[in-house]
Amino acid sequence: MRIVPVLVWILFPGCWAVTGPGTAHGRLGGSVSVRCRYGAGYAAYPKFWCRRKVVLCFNHLIFETTGSEAEERWGRVSIRDNHTQRVITVTLENLTLADAGTYLCGVARIGLPNPRDSVEVIISPAAAPSPSIPTEKAPPPTDQPAAPAFTRISTGSHVSSSSRNSSLDSNDIQAQSQPNILYPLFLIIPVFLCIVCTGIWVSVQYRRNSREMVPNRHAEELPLS
């Protein structure tokens, strides 16, 4: 069985001069890049990328360079050749399910076998979007007080204002109650003074009358001569 690869090498020299990744994966709607390496001595040859049909390529699906390192683009397909690294880079963009299949990348030689390798392109479904966390709708704006922080501040201001109002009310009550207490004093003091003055006047009159009556009594007690 080992003679078969030897016969193939003899009949088709250079058929293993190109090696690809074997498979390439891409997501639906995304892009995929395939890198195929080739051996020394093939840098000046054009490089190709095509859709395989049994062994050869579809004639209308062949993408080929001119042998330079300039990038060639056909719609969603681009191909670039790097002579220094001896790498062919093929990029497929905006992938569809129809892009899945077997492709060939290789070196194009006129009149000689083309070294090439097959690559299986696999298209995966697009990544499912992560489940979004439902968010609560904001309540409609109302005329209610604002946030609790402001409510606390306003409550403190109400408390301070109420305490101030209560202190003012107590001061007003005290100010109003003081005249009510002083009014009777203003009335009692004059009456008391009148009573005291009357008593003094009565006592003075009584003393005067008693003095006047004492000589009269002495005169009455004296014997008549």
Detailed description of the structure:
This protein is an alpha+beta fold and 225 residues long. It is built from two helices and ten strands, in the order αββββββββββα. The strands form two sheets. It has a five-stranded antiparallel β-sheet, with no helix packed on it. A five-stranded mixed β-sheet has the order 2-10-9-4-5, with no helix packed on it.
Helix and strand layout, with pairings?
Blueprint: H1 3-11, E1 18-19, E2 23-27, E3 32-38, E4 47-53, E5 56-64, E6 72-74, E7 77-82, E8 87-92, E9 101-107, E10 116-124, H2 148-221
Parallel strand pairs: 2-10
Antiparallel strand pairs: 1-3, 3-8, 4-5, 4-9, 6-7, 7-8, 9-10
Question: What are the defining features of this structure?
Answer:
225 residues, 27% strand, alpha+beta, 2 helices, single chain, 10 strands, 5-stranded mixed sheet, 5-stranded antiparallel sheet
Spans with pLDDT under 50 lasting ≥5 residues? 4-14, 150-161
Distance between the termini: 203 Å
Please tell me what the overall shape is: rod-shaped
User: Tally the helices: what do you get?
Assistant: 2
Structural class: alpha+beta
The residue-averaged pLDDT reads 75
In quaternary terms, these chains amount to single chain
Main beta sheet strand tally, sense and closure: 5 strands, antiparallel
Helix content: 25-40%
Q: Write out the strand line-up for the largest beta sheet, numbering strands in chain order.
A: 1-3-8-7-6
Q: Kindly estimate the percentage of residues that lie in beta strands according to DSSP.
A: 25-35%
Radius of gyration using CA atoms only: 62 Å
What's the total count of β strands? 10
Query: Strand-and-helix sequence, N→C?
Result: HEEEEEEEEEEH
